[in-house]
Amino acid sequence: xxxxxxxxxxxxxxxxxxxxxxxxxxxxxxxxxxxxxxxxxxxxxxxxxxxxxxxxxxxxxxxxxxxxxxxxxxxxxxxxxxxxxxxxxxxxxxxxxxxxxxxxxxxxxxxxxxxxxxxxxxxxxxxxxxxxxxxxxxxxxxxxxxxxxxxxxxxxxxxxxxxxxxxxxxxxxxxxxxxxxxxxxxxxxxxxxxxxxxxxxxxxxxxxxxxxxxxxxxxxxxxxxxxxxxxxxxxxxxxxxxxxxxxxxxxxxxxxxxxxxxxxxxxxxxxxxxxxxxxxxxxxxxxxxxxxxxxxxxxxxxxxxxxxxxxxxxxxxxxxxxxxxxxxxxxxxxxxxxxxxxxxxxxxxxxxxxxxxxxxxxxxxxxxxxxxxxxxxxxxxxxxxxxxxxxxxxxxxxxxxxxxxxxxxxxxxxxxxxxxxxxxxxxxxxxxxxxxxxxxxxxxxxxxxxxxxxxxxxxxxxxxxxxxxxxxxxxxxxxxxxxxxxxxxxxxx
Length: 493
Ligand code: UDP
What we know:
Blueprint: H1 2-5, E1 8-12, H2 17-32, E2 36-41, H3 43-48, H4 50-59, E3 63-67, H5 93-101, H6 104-113, E4 121-125, H7 131-138, E5 142-145, H8 150-161, E6 174-176, E7 185-187, H9 201-213, E8 217-219, H10 223-237, E9 241-243, H11 268-276, E10 283-287, H12 296-309, E11 313-317, H13 323-332, H14 335-338, E12 343-347, H15 352-356, E13 361-366, H16 370-378, E14 383-385, H17 392-402, E15 406-408, H18 428-439, H19 443-463, H20 468-481
The structure holds uridine-5'-diphosphate.
């Protein structure tokens, strides 16, 4: 029947905002192009995306949300710890990964007994190696989704596979990374993997080993952005790579909300009206994503630097940043009063997508999470790079050195996730200098803006009919439908 011939993708994101959001976009992308999708989630994560799920249902897109009970108690996690952003400390990450792996049998059982159509492909986060077993049980391909850009995924692949830091005693000593299209040196202190927590090494090893068994890799990037890295990654990993991004630009009409992954904590209309009152390209948007925890002492320096820059700004301070303490300072010092005409402070989850695409925004101070990076690129914005952990330093390198659309604020060390005594690395003056440089109207600033705008146009073209990501998505669906992707990662045609 028709139903059986249709490609049916099972999508399994890691339960963290930065991982779930692009997978949701991918669900809408694939479903909007004729494939059926089962989207694996958990009850509390499903509640967060309820309004999106409702509008998907109303639009008639064939996406089935599958909330599987998350085994917190069995794994020693506090009740309700279904997302990395609510883990009390990185000490519990290993338990979190263990709980994820326990979703294997419930998922397989659903696919065996309750799925309206048999699955034809699993696309799962690289962090979910257990999905490889599910795919093998059903004899279907599993495509790994790194949730990184191609450059960062390539560097991670090479650094673990060839153990490039094995004999390096000093973690600040730069080591040459082989198999890249150009010379590149990286210090262990700035390499992905430090965001771990005790006991997580074996999970990472399992994830990377399973990536090497995957039947292909799907990357949220586009060829004009990272062609040489996509190429090198495909060669060294020996895999077919589908570039399908920027996923944030897909299906804007279906279930589009200003905030991504969960409802905004502020009134979107208010933010947009505030931006409407500002000059074109004059506002700096400052956000450090969902996981990075920036200590109050460091945030105060951000505030002072923004004030000294004399530019208008939107500044997001999230719950994990101990907003109450920062707010106390903001009030006690009269900061809010002093900047009230040109500073909008958002406490909680901001409507980032809407803000970035508003014409008043002219620059983005970002922690260089991959989604934020791509969203900045897609919005055609130059960026101030402030990496915190994980692969964010690699994204900074891409933004600043390869794409030349960034000004580094000057971070030299990882922020240990959840560390209470994190030092203040960046001072008010560093912030002020970086903002001044980014927003400068001189030749250097103009050149940077021109390059950023050009990348934004290329990003949009990639997702339009005839564009590279558009065509790759079409091929991916067609190849899965025709069962051309072998379960050994090779293509038949
Ligand atoms: N985001 C948002 N509102 C916020 C903070 C983040 O909508 O207040 C979205 C942002 O647009 C991006 C994602 O959350 O899509 C964050 O992902 P990223 O990879 O940048 O960083 P992470 O959260 O993983 O550190």
